[in-house]
Amino acid sequence: MSGWDIADIPDQTGRTVIVTGANSGLGAVTARALADAGAQVIMACRNEVKARSVADGIGKNVQVRRLDLADLASVREFADSIDAVDLLINNAGVMAVPLKRTADGFEMQIGTNHLGHFALTGLLLDKVRDRIVTVSSGMHATGKIDLADLNWEHRHYQRWLAYGQSKLANLMFTYELQRRLTAAGSSKLSVGAHPGFAATELQSHTESIQDFFLGIGNKLFAQSAEMGALPTLYAATAEVRPGGYYGPTGLRGMRGNPGPSGSTAASRDEVTARRLWELSEQLTKVSYAFPRR
User: Fold this and answer.
1) Which of 39, 214, 246, 253 could form a disulfide with 34 if both were Cys (CB 3.0 to 4.6 A apart)?
2) Could you give the CA distance from residue 221 to residue 212 in angstroms, rounded to a whole number?
């Protein structure tokens, strides 16, 4: 398993896949690999122009649809356009941006990375046939879920702690979703993944001097987006454990081929996960239904 790579992706012919944020970085690599394996890939992106350029480079088995995870109206419109899908990959995200608000008033990182994907998954759940893969980060270890101020309305805003909170929320959502699917007797899977330290455009959108230093880090230490996407592709197509979490297996989880990854005790806190779920339903006004399959 430690040597698993793109060549090991099973034939995806006949399967339909949604990849959010597929216009660049890990998402673009993920979309290309799945399309090359035969899947019909829906590239769900805010930047349609950039996404179409990527889609033209893939050349087949792809279509572009608009999705802005920072706008729940856009999330609902996109979900309404989907009939059925085998695999949903919640990949899109923003990292360490200045304090901004989504169209619905959420802090941009928790709003885009967690709440947008929470709403999207809930609206699509009865249309997903196989599994949901949500991309987290090793930075979840720096996160703390503040249920009293999830959207940084009362605390002094700290961009990296806000990012850590959003990535911890992604992972807690992954685990809680699997617990609820299992309790409902559903065969659907909820699986998490993280890319380790991979060079992507995320590191150039902090809108601060940190972009410069993160760019240097990318050149000196990061693995490629192609390697960083492998854990997502593994979680999406391999035989995995329900509620599993996968990432690089080398250099303390920062580089290498994919395999099982550990996560913090906080990510396994079922009480906080339930309360975060309930709060997320309240904020997004999306309630999950868990029919048996």
Assistant:
1) 39
2) 14
Tokens for 211, please give them: 């972009």
Buried b or exposed e, range 237-257, using 16+ CB within 10 angstroms: bbebeebbbbbbbeeebbbbb
Q: Please say whether the beta carbons of 188 and 177 come within 8 A.
A: no
**Contact status, residue 176 vs residue 122, Cβ threshold 8 Å:** no
CATH of 10-195+229-283, one of 2.60.40.10, 1.50.10.10, 3.40.50.620, 3.40.50.720: 3.40.50.720
Which residue among 163, 234, 245, 246 is the active-site one? 163
Helix or strand or coil: residue 138?
helix
Total H helices, total E strands in the chain? 10, 8
**pLDDT > 90 fraction of the chain, expressed in percent and rounded:** 83
Give all strands (DSSP E) within the chain, no chain letters: 16-20, 40-45, 62-66, 85-90, 128-135, 189-193, 245-250, 255-260
> What phi and psi values does residue 18 have, to the nearest 5 degrees?
-105, 130
Check residue 150 and give its pLDDT: 98
Interval 16-50: pLDDT, tens: 999 999 999 999 999 999 999 999 999 999 999 99
Is 245 marked active-site? no
* Amino acid letter for position 130: D
109 to each of 30, 40, 198, 248, 279, how far by Cα in Å?
A: 22, 29, 19, 24, 16
The pLDDT tens digits for 215-253 are 444 444 567 889 999 999 999 999 999 999 999 997 665
Q: What residues does 87 pair with on adjacent strands? A: 17, 131
Entry pTM: 0.91
